[in-house]
Design brief:
mainly alpha; 0% strand
Protein backbone atom coordinates (compact mmCIF):
# COMPACT_ATOMS: atom_id res chain seq x y z
CA UNK A 1 0.00 0.00 0.00
CA UNK A 2 1.34 3.41 -0.97
CA UNK A 3 1.58 5.87 1.92
CA UNK A 4 -0.25 9.21 1.70
CA UNK A 5 3.11 11.00 1.62
CA UNK A 6 4.40 8.92 -1.29
CA UNK A 7 1.09 9.35 -3.10
CA UNK A 8 1.44 13.13 -2.79
CA UNK A 9 5.06 13.01 -3.93
CA UNK A 10 4.21 10.92 -6.98
CA UNK A 11 1.38 13.30 -7.86
CA UNK A 12 3.64 16.33 -7.41
CA UNK A 13 6.34 14.99 -9.71
CA UNK A 14 3.83 13.80 -12.30
CA UNK A 15 2.48 17.35 -12.52
CA UNK A 16 5.88 19.09 -12.48
CA UNK A 17 7.20 16.68 -15.11
CA UNK A 18 4.31 17.54 -17.41
CA UNK A 19 4.89 21.27 -16.94
CA UNK A 20 8.59 20.84 -17.74
CA UNK A 21 7.65 18.73 -20.76
CA UNK A 22 5.76 21.65 -22.28
CA UNK A 23 8.81 23.90 -21.89
CA UNK A 24 11.07 21.28 -23.48
CA UNK A 25 8.71 21.08 -26.44
CA UNK A 26 8.66 24.88 -26.57
CA UNK A 27 12.42 24.96 -27.30
CA UNK A 28 12.78 27.28 -30.27
CA UNK A 29 16.42 27.37 -31.40
CA UNK A 30 17.14 26.51 -35.04
CA UNK A 31 17.76 22.81 -34.29
CA UNK A 32 14.42 22.06 -32.62
CA UNK A 33 14.50 18.26 -32.51
CA UNK A 34 16.50 17.56 -29.36
CA UNK A 35 18.69 14.52 -28.89
CA UNK A 36 21.34 14.12 -26.16
CA UNK A 37 24.02 14.98 -28.73
CA UNK A 38 22.16 17.83 -30.49
CA UNK A 39 24.46 20.66 -31.58
CA UNK A 40 22.73 24.08 -31.80
CA UNK A 41 24.80 25.31 -34.78
CA UNK A 42 24.27 28.93 -33.77
CA UNK A 43 26.12 31.52 -31.66
CA UNK A 44 26.23 31.20 -27.89
CA UNK A 45 24.03 33.98 -26.52
CA UNK A 46 22.15 34.39 -23.22
CA UNK A 47 18.97 33.21 -24.96
CA UNK A 48 20.46 30.21 -26.75
CA UNK A 49 22.44 29.18 -23.66
CA UNK A 50 19.38 29.40 -21.38
CA UNK A 51 17.13 27.44 -23.69
CA UNK A 52 19.64 24.66 -24.32
CA UNK A 53 20.73 24.49 -20.67
CA UNK A 54 17.12 24.04 -19.55
CA UNK A 55 15.48 22.12 -22.39
CA UNK A 56 18.35 19.75 -23.15
CA UNK A 57 19.84 19.63 -19.68
CA UNK A 58 18.08 20.54 -16.44
CA UNK A 59 14.58 19.49 -17.53
CA UNK A 60 15.54 16.14 -19.05
CA UNK A 61 15.16 13.98 -15.94
CA UNK A 62 11.38 14.18 -16.16
CA UNK A 63 10.74 11.18 -18.45
CA UNK A 64 12.89 8.76 -16.39
CA UNK A 65 11.06 10.07 -13.31
CA UNK A 66 7.69 9.24 -14.89
CA UNK A 67 8.82 5.78 -15.96
CA UNK A 68 10.11 4.93 -12.46
CA UNK A 69 6.83 6.11 -10.93
CA UNK A 70 4.88 4.08 -13.51
CA UNK A 71 6.88 0.92 -12.85
CA UNK A 72 6.64 1.31 -9.08
CA UNK A 73 2.88 1.87 -9.11
CA UNK A 74 2.24 -0.99 -11.52
CA UNK A 75 4.23 -3.37 -9.32
CA UNK A 76 2.10 -2.40 -6.31
CA UNK A 77 -0.95 -4.23 -7.66
CA UNK A 78 0.36 -7.75 -8.10
CA UNK A 79 -2.66 -9.10 -6.22
CA UNK A 80 -4.60 -8.65 -9.48
CA UNK A 81 -4.03 -10.93 -12.51
CA UNK A 82 -1.96 -9.20 -15.17
CA UNK A 83 -4.54 -10.03 -17.81
CA UNK A 84 -7.18 -8.15 -15.84
CA UNK A 85 -4.86 -5.17 -15.46
CA UNK A 86 -4.02 -5.17 -19.16
CA UNK A 87 -7.70 -5.06 -20.07
CA UNK A 88 -8.00 -2.00 -17.84
CA UNK A 89 -4.90 -0.50 -19.47
CA UNK A 90 -6.52 -0.82 -22.88
CA UNK A 91 -9.16 1.59 -21.59
CA UNK A 92 -6.84 3.90 -19.66
CA UNK A 93 -3.87 3.96 -22.07
CA UNK A 94 -4.74 2.64 -25.53
CA UNK A 95 -8.09 4.40 -25.91
CA UNK A 96 -6.75 7.86 -24.91
CA UNK A 97 -3.74 7.23 -27.18
CA UNK A 98 -5.96 6.59 -30.20
CA UNK A 99 -8.27 9.52 -29.41
CA UNK A 100 -5.51 12.08 -28.86
CA UNK A 101 -3.47 10.84 -31.81
CA UNK A 102 -6.50 11.24 -34.06
CA UNK A 103 -7.31 14.65 -32.57
CA UNK A 104 -3.78 15.91 -33.17
CA UNK A 105 -3.82 14.79 -36.77
CA UNK A 106 -7.28 16.28 -37.25
CA UNK A 107 -6.05 19.63 -35.91
CA UNK A 108 -3.12 19.69 -38.35
CA UNK A 109 -5.46 18.73 -41.20
CA UNK A 110 -7.75 21.66 -40.38
CA UNK A 111 -4.85 24.10 -40.10
CA UNK A 112 -3.71 23.05 -43.57
CA UNK A 113 -6.98 24.42 -44.97
CA UNK A 114 -6.01 28.02 -44.21
CA UNK A 115 -3.18 29.70 -46.17
CA UNK A 116 -1.65 31.47 -43.14
CA UNK A 117 -1.34 28.38 -40.94
CA UNK A 118 -0.56 26.08 -43.88
CA UNK A 119 2.45 28.24 -44.70
CA UNK A 120 3.83 27.88 -41.16
CA UNK A 121 3.31 24.11 -41.25
CA UNK A 122 5.18 23.84 -44.53
CA UNK A 123 8.07 25.98 -43.25
CA UNK A 124 8.32 23.95 -40.05
CA UNK A 125 8.32 20.59 -41.92
CA UNK A 126 6.22 19.35 -39.02
CA UNK A 127 4.46 16.54 -40.89
CA UNK A 128 6.77 16.26 -43.91
CA UNK A 129 7.30 12.76 -45.33
CA UNK A 130 9.56 13.56 -48.28
CA UNK A 131 10.62 16.50 -50.46
CA UNK A 132 7.26 16.69 -52.23
CA UNK A 133 4.80 15.83 -49.43
CA UNK A 134 4.86 18.45 -46.70
CA UNK A 135 1.25 18.20 -45.52
CA UNK A 136 -1.18 15.56 -44.30
CA UNK A 137 -3.31 16.40 -47.34
CA UNK A 138 -0.50 14.87 -49.43
CA UNK A 139 -0.46 11.54 -47.54
CA UNK A 140 -1.59 8.19 -48.91
CA UNK A 141 -4.27 6.45 -46.83
CA UNK A 142 -1.80 3.98 -45.33
CA UNK A 143 0.48 6.84 -44.27
CA UNK A 144 -2.44 8.47 -42.47
CA UNK A 145 -3.08 5.15 -40.73
CA UNK A 146 0.58 4.80 -39.76
CA UNK A 147 0.58 8.36 -38.41
CA UNK A 148 -2.47 7.64 -36.30
CA UNK A 149 -1.28 4.30 -34.90
CA UNK A 150 2.48 4.56 -34.66
CA UNK A 151 3.85 8.06 -35.36
CA UNK A 152 1.38 10.57 -33.89
CA UNK A 153 1.69 14.24 -34.73
CA UNK A 154 1.03 14.55 -30.99
CA UNK A 155 4.53 13.20 -30.60
CA UNK A 156 4.50 13.04 -26.79
CA UNK A 157 2.15 10.03 -27.04
CA UNK A 158 5.13 7.71 -27.60
CA UNK A 159 5.29 7.48 -23.80
CA UNK A 160 1.82 5.89 -23.60
CA UNK A 161 2.62 3.52 -26.46
CA UNK A 162 5.75 2.06 -24.91
CA UNK A 163 4.29 2.13 -21.39
CA UNK A 164 1.48 -0.14 -22.57
CA UNK A 165 4.07 -2.51 -24.03
CA UNK A 166 5.98 -2.58 -20.73
CA UNK A 167 2.74 -3.27 -18.86
CA UNK A 168 2.06 -6.23 -21.16
CA UNK A 169 5.63 -7.46 -20.64
CA UNK A 170 5.44 -6.86 -16.87
CA UNK A 171 5.52 -10.55 -15.80
CA UNK A 172 8.77 -11.02 -17.72
CA UNK A 173 10.25 -7.74 -16.42
CA UNK A 174 9.30 -8.65 -12.85
CA UNK A 175 10.94 -12.06 -13.20
CA UNK A 176 14.13 -10.51 -14.57
CA UNK A 177 14.47 -7.95 -11.77
CA UNK A 178 13.61 -10.33 -8.91
CA UNK A 179 15.98 -13.20 -9.79
CA UNK A 180 19.57 -12.41 -8.86
CA UNK A 181 21.34 -13.97 -11.85
CA UNK A 182 18.87 -12.65 -14.40
CA UNK A 183 18.80 -9.23 -12.72
CA UNK A 184 22.45 -8.41 -13.36
CA UNK A 185 22.25 -9.50 -16.98
CA UNK A 186 18.96 -7.65 -17.51
CA UNK A 187 20.08 -4.38 -15.97
CA UNK A 188 23.41 -4.54 -17.80
CA UNK A 189 21.56 -4.86 -21.10
CA UNK A 190 19.00 -2.15 -20.33
CA UNK A 191 21.72 0.21 -19.11
CA UNK A 192 23.63 -0.26 -22.35
CA UNK A 193 20.43 0.40 -24.29
CA UNK A 194 19.88 3.57 -22.27
CA UNK A 195 23.43 4.77 -22.86
CA UNK A 196 23.13 4.08 -26.58
CA UNK A 197 19.79 5.95 -26.79
CA UNK A 198 18.38 3.20 -28.99
CA UNK A 199 14.68 3.29 -29.74
CA UNK A 200 12.07 1.68 -31.96
CA UNK A 201 8.32 2.05 -32.43
CA UNK A 202 7.40 -0.26 -29.52
CA UNK A 203 10.63 -0.27 -27.61
CA UNK A 204 13.26 2.15 -26.41
CA UNK A 205 16.07 1.96 -23.91
CA UNK A 206 15.38 4.86 -21.59
CA UNK A 207 11.87 3.84 -20.66
CA UNK A 208 12.67 0.16 -20.22
CA UNK A 209 15.55 0.82 -17.82
CA UNK A 210 13.64 3.20 -15.57
CA UNK A 211 10.31 1.34 -15.66
CA UNK A 212 12.23 -1.78 -14.63
CA UNK A 213 14.02 0.14 -11.87
CA UNK A 214 10.64 1.20 -10.53
CA UNK A 215 9.49 -2.43 -10.47
CA UNK A 216 12.70 -3.54 -8.75
CA UNK A 217 12.45 -0.77 -6.14
CA UNK A 218 8.94 -1.87 -5.22
CA UNK A 219 9.86 -5.56 -5.08
CA UNK A 220 13.11 -5.16 -3.12
CA UNK A 221 14.12 -3.67 0.21
CA UNK A 222 15.13 -0.44 -1.54
CA UNK A 223 13.52 2.58 0.09
CA UNK A 224 12.40 5.53 -1.97
CA UNK A 225 11.51 7.67 1.05
CA UNK A 226 15.01 8.41 2.35
CA UNK A 227 18.30 8.48 0.42
CA UNK A 228 20.46 5.43 0.92
CA UNK A 229 24.24 5.45 0.91
CA UNK A 230 25.62 7.17 -2.16
CA UNK A 231 22.35 8.96 -2.98
CA UNK A 232 22.72 12.17 -0.97
CA UNK A 233 20.89 14.86 -2.92
CA UNK A 234 23.35 17.71 -2.25
CA UNK A 235 26.29 16.03 -3.98
CA UNK A 236 24.14 14.83 -6.86
CA UNK A 237 22.56 18.28 -7.15
CA UNK A 238 25.96 19.96 -7.50
CA UNK A 239 26.94 17.43 -10.17
CA UNK A 240 23.58 18.00 -11.88
CA UNK A 241 24.10 21.75 -12.29
CA UNK A 242 27.82 21.70 -13.11
CA UNK A 243 27.58 18.92 -15.70
CA UNK A 244 24.56 20.57 -17.35
CA UNK A 245 26.56 23.81 -17.63
CA UNK A 246 29.62 22.07 -19.09
CA UNK A 247 27.52 20.02 -21.50
CA UNK A 248 25.75 23.15 -22.75
CA UNK A 249 29.03 24.97 -23.41
CA UNK A 250 30.48 21.93 -25.17
CA UNK A 251 27.40 21.66 -27.39
CA UNK A 252 27.93 25.20 -28.66
CA UNK A 253 31.65 24.55 -29.24
CA UNK A 254 31.21 21.03 -30.68
CA UNK A 255 31.07 22.18 -34.29
CA UNK A 256 34.80 22.89 -34.15
CA UNK A 257 35.78 19.93 -31.93
CA UNK A 258 36.45 16.38 -33.12
CA UNK A 259 35.10 13.41 -31.20
CA UNK A 260 33.08 15.45 -28.72
CA UNK A 261 29.62 14.05 -29.50
CA UNK A 262 30.07 10.81 -27.48
CA UNK A 263 31.29 12.92 -24.55
CA UNK A 264 28.22 15.18 -24.79
CA UNK A 265 25.96 12.12 -24.94
CA UNK A 266 27.56 10.52 -21.88
CA UNK A 267 27.41 13.79 -19.95
CA UNK A 268 23.73 14.08 -20.87
CA UNK A 269 23.07 10.67 -19.31
CA UNK A 270 24.87 11.62 -16.11
CA UNK A 271 22.92 14.89 -15.99
CA UNK A 272 19.65 12.93 -16.26
CA UNK A 273 20.68 10.47 -13.55
CA UNK A 274 22.00 13.13 -11.17
CA UNK A 275 18.91 15.29 -11.71
CA UNK A 276 16.67 12.34 -10.99
CA UNK A 277 18.38 11.58 -7.68
CA UNK A 278 18.80 15.20 -6.59
CA UNK A 279 15.23 16.21 -7.37
CA UNK A 280 13.58 13.13 -5.87
CA UNK A 281 15.48 13.08 -2.57
CA UNK A 282 16.08 16.82 -2.27
CA UNK A 283 12.55 18.08 -2.88
CA UNK A 284 10.64 16.96 0.21
CA UNK A 285 10.22 20.47 1.61
CA UNK A 286 8.98 21.82 -1.71
CA UNK A 287 6.60 18.90 -2.17
CA UNK A 288 5.11 19.30 1.32
CA UNK A 289 4.65 23.04 0.88
CA UNK A 290 3.16 22.73 -2.60
CA UNK A 291 0.77 19.88 -1.90
CA UNK A 292 -0.49 21.63 1.25
CA UNK A 293 -1.80 24.48 -0.92
CA UNK A 294 -5.34 23.81 -2.21
CA UNK A 295 -4.66 25.69 -5.46
CA UNK A 296 -1.60 23.57 -6.24
CA UNK A 297 -3.33 20.32 -5.35
CA UNK A 298 -6.15 21.36 -7.71
CA UNK A 299 -3.71 22.18 -10.51
CA UNK A 300 -1.87 18.88 -10.08
CA UNK A 301 -5.02 16.94 -10.96
CA UNK A 302 -4.66 18.16 -14.57
CA UNK A 303 -1.33 16.46 -15.27
CA UNK A 304 -2.69 14.13 -17.93
CA UNK A 305 -4.69 16.74 -19.83
CA UNK A 306 -1.55 18.92 -20.00
CA UNK A 307 0.38 15.93 -21.31
CA UNK A 308 -2.19 14.94 -23.91
CA UNK A 309 -3.25 18.36 -25.18
CA UNK A 310 -0.09 20.49 -25.19
CA UNK A 311 1.39 19.04 -28.37
CA UNK A 312 1.25 19.73 -31.21
CA UNK A 313 -0.13 23.09 -30.00
CA UNK A 314 3.16 24.31 -28.50
CA UNK A 315 5.23 23.21 -31.50
CA UNK A 316 3.06 24.72 -34.21
CA UNK A 317 2.68 27.90 -32.17
CA UNK A 318 6.38 28.79 -32.15
CA UNK A 319 6.66 30.32 -35.62
CA UNK A 320 3.38 32.28 -35.46
CA UNK A 321 4.43 33.73 -32.08
CA UNK A 322 7.82 34.57 -33.58
CA UNK A 323 5.99 36.35 -36.37
CA UNK A 324 4.01 38.39 -33.87
CA UNK A 325 6.89 39.25 -31.54
CA UNK A 326 9.78 39.57 -33.99
CA UNK A 327 10.00 43.34 -33.55
CA UNK A 328 10.53 42.99 -29.78
CA UNK A 329 14.05 42.58 -28.49
CA UNK A 330 14.48 39.15 -26.94
CA UNK A 331 11.49 37.69 -28.78
CA UNK A 332 12.93 34.17 -28.72
CA UNK A 333 13.32 33.97 -24.95
CA UNK A 334 9.92 35.63 -24.55
CA UNK A 335 8.42 32.94 -26.77
CA UNK A 336 10.19 30.23 -24.79
CA UNK A 337 8.60 31.55 -21.58
CA UNK A 338 5.20 32.83 -22.67
CA UNK A 339 4.12 30.22 -25.21
CA UNK A 340 4.47 27.19 -22.89
CA UNK A 341 2.82 29.08 -20.03
CA UNK A 342 -0.09 30.03 -22.30
CA UNK A 343 -0.48 26.46 -23.54
CA UNK A 344 -0.37 25.09 -19.97
CA UNK A 345 -3.07 27.52 -18.86
CA UNK A 346 -5.16 26.65 -21.92
CA UNK A 347 -4.84 22.92 -21.16
CA UNK A 348 -5.84 23.41 -17.51
CA UNK A 349 -8.78 25.62 -18.44
CA UNK A 350 -9.94 23.12 -21.06
CA UNK A 351 -9.60 20.28 -18.57
CA UNK A 352 -11.48 22.16 -15.86
CA UNK A 353 -14.35 23.01 -18.21
CA UNK A 354 -14.61 19.47 -19.57
CA UNK A 355 -14.41 17.90 -16.12
CA UNK A 356 -17.25 20.13 -14.89
CA UNK A 357 -19.53 20.06 -17.93
CA UNK A 358 -18.81 16.64 -19.45
CA UNK A 359 -17.25 14.42 -16.76
CA UNK A 360 -17.86 11.16 -18.66
CA UNK A 361 -16.10 12.51 -21.75
CA UNK A 362 -13.27 13.84 -19.60
CA UNK A 363 -12.90 10.42 -17.97
CA UNK A 364 -12.58 8.79 -21.40
CA UNK A 365 -10.06 11.36 -22.64
CA UNK A 366 -7.86 11.02 -19.56
CA UNK A 367 -8.30 7.34 -18.83
CA UNK A 368 -10.05 8.27 -15.60
CA UNK A 369 -7.17 10.37 -14.28
CA UNK A 370 -7.73 13.60 -12.36
CA UNK A 371 -11.42 12.99 -11.69
Amino acid sequence: MLSQWMSQKFKFWAFVSMVLLVFVHGYNLDQRYLQPWTIPYEPLTPTSFTEYFLANGIFRFRIPMLFIISGYLYALNDQLPNGQRIRKRLRTLLLPYLIWSGAGMGLIYLLELFPYTRNFLMISHFVQIDNTRLLIHDYHWYEVLARWLFFPVSYQLWFIRVLLIYNIAYPLIRWCVTHSRARWIFFTMTTLLWLSTMGFVFFEGEGLLFFSLGVWMQKSSFTIEIPQRGLKPLLWGVAFIILALIKTILAFKAENMNGVLPIITLMHKVVVLSGLIACWYGSDGLVKWSMSKPWFAWLSSFSFIIYALHAPLVAIGIDPVFDGLRYIEGYRILTFILLPLTVILFCIATGAILRKTAPKLYAVLTGGRGM
